[in-house]
Amino acid sequence: MVFANQDHLNLSDEELETFLVQMAIPWYINFYVSWHECPNALWITYQDVATDSKDTIKKILRHVGRQDIRDDEIETALKNRNSSADRMNVGSPGRGHMLSSENKTLIRQYCSAYPSIDFSLIGVD
Fold it and tell me: Which of 113, 102, 116, 125 is nearest to 29 (CA)?
């Protein structure tokens, strides 16, 4: 992870983007790559959750051996969830396209250290 302090509050958007790419993205890539070593990992994308929460939850429950949860229980849980507890940073697929070309190049360079890993799940082509 990365530690940001008061100094970073005054950065321009461009400077903040570069700071995050240089400091946070290497950790994120390392974390992502480490999960490729897990033979039983279940890959769920933001898009999976956003477009079909119920089926995604069922997929997760089946993966962990819970076959006994009924559809109506999942629907009730989704209906009764505390939406105010949702994170403020709402996910939005494709935001990486807004990065500067220099930062996109830097991210691809970080990823190139792992040539056998498919980074398309996290938006790196």
Answer: 113
